[in-house]
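Researcher: Please predict.
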Amino acid sequence: MTGTVGYGFVLAGLACAAFGAVVGLTTGLKRSDAGWVWVQRAVWGFFLCLIGANLTMEYALLTHDFSVKYVAQVGSRATPTVFTVVSLWSALEGSILFWGAILAIYVLAFMLLHRRENPRAMSVALGVMLAVGVFFAFLIAGPANPFHTLPNPPADGPGPNPLLQNHALMIIHPPMLYLGYVGMTVPFGVAAAALLRGEINAAWMVPLRRWMLVAWTFLSVGIILGGWWAYAVLGWGGYWAWDPVENASFLPWLTATAFIHSTMVQERKRMLKLWTLSLALSTFVLTILGTFMTRSGVFNSVHSFTQSDIGPTFLVFLAVLLVFCIGLLAARGHLLVAEEGIRSPLSRETTILLNNLVFAALTFVVLVGTLHPLIAESLFDKRVSVGAPYFDKLTLPFWTVMLFLMGVGPMLPWGSADREKVRGQFLLPGGVALATVAACFAAGLRGGYALAVFGLAAFVAVINVRELVIPVRARMRERSEGLVTAVVESASRARRRFGGYVVHLGIVMVAVAVAASQSYVTHTTATVKKGETFKAGGYELKFLGLTGGREPHREYVAARLEVVPPGGGAPDELAPRMNYYEMSTDPIGTPGVRSTAREDLYVSLLAFSGQAKSPDGVETASFNTWIFPLVGWIWWAIPVLVGGSLIAMWPSRRAKVALAGTPAVAGAGPAPDAAVQKGAA
């Protein structure tokens, strides 16, 4: 019964999405308001049906209804309730069902926030988004149907993947990624609608930019949380391995970041129109490609799902999407001609253009490295491997240039700059950068790349902090405002500018942390008996013995370690452990981590023997130990990135006024709707 109810919701949602897509596109493109009410009803129907389907599946999971195939696949009576809830997205069919619910939430949110604007334009945008909803609802109803009913249900199930039960981050990491991935549908719908209607103006660019920033923020947080999860769960000491599925999330992040920068040039200088719209469309295409890579089973990855039947369906949708986007850009190319050109190489628009070229090159390098093994095997029946050395070698120069441009851009004006003034502005940040490199070298740090990153990070930080401080100091001096008032007023009057500089500082934190943790890592392996001590860097670790226990969903063995930090401070205790799940033949490790602002002590339990197994009757254990300098700064950058993004996306009074109407297409006469209304009058 539960499976029938859930499947009924999916079919009804598919019907609502199809109806809304057809009505929205046909009436919106015909410049008619007649379908607006029905499009809104279709959006509500799609939302209620997909949410209903997800709640039905949650009910089946929580009540252990093993007659539902998906519950029999991932459910277990021994699994804790919280992991039972999140097992909704622990396997292929459930993840697609969850994807549909988030898409429905996004489409409804877009409709509610923009329902008072031009209904004809909104009908087209919602029609495009609902067309995407048709595809995912079709997947849920067909090849990825989680509501299949089993004639002979089992008494119990295996539970979700052990890796998904091993850390609380799995509760929030996948939803953040989904919110980023699925959120790209909204800017895609807005961009496609603008091109379909032939209106490329501020009335479209404002919501396009804001919704892209929303999705970009979620995707950024999801990527960092994914690195944190890998660091805290997998026990290998890393947080990024250029895994194909990691790259799948990184590719749309690169193009979305380029888009956010490109919109500034498009709005200020009426340049890069074709490039900006292409980035909006390609970002969504890359999310679909990434979803295919994650869920088709064509890549072997700790993240990916098993082999499934949805791969060909995704490839067909991807092909249709590419044809649609290329055809749309070709048909509307005459509306995307730049109205101005670059006047000076010493200008902000030049640095943003260079920045975009760097992002494009990075996207190409990562895409080629990710897809090359698949293409080589498909076309030439030849197995090849592209690992971290390829990505590290080819991407490091781009990261260095990008970090430099992140500092230069905010310092340069729009249009053209006075060379002497620019030279003067370089003195302080340049001096701080050189002093930083010299101080690091004097402290014994070596390695050209790491020192370059530290110097450039100081350069970027000084410039961005200076750009934040200048308007605050001016308000305090000219208006006698207090510090807090001056900061709030400065941020509120230039939200995008202020928020962007805060985000830059978050990126600087990540860059420094990555360079330090990879360049100056210390690794130690030791096998010790109970009561013995070993050293890792300046730390002294004493093995106190083994302990074990049983939890509802697993058994575990932990090794207790007393840790004395460098300099003989107060001792801490770590307990790296191995967890044993019924459905897994191999144990899942949980490292012990002692984290400070300076560094992390990271200890994994490799092997152990108890008194019964040890030849001499003594407990022994083997450990992998790493010391990662500054690695925690990666996770601590999350609130900085989120805070800056919230400031930047917060709507200003001017933006609200601009969205009230539909301005004419720049350089192309009055807007079509305005012309129709004038003729009718």
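Model: The beta strands are 522-529, 533-536, 539-551, 554-564, 572-574, 577-580, 588-590, 592-595, 599-609, 620-629.
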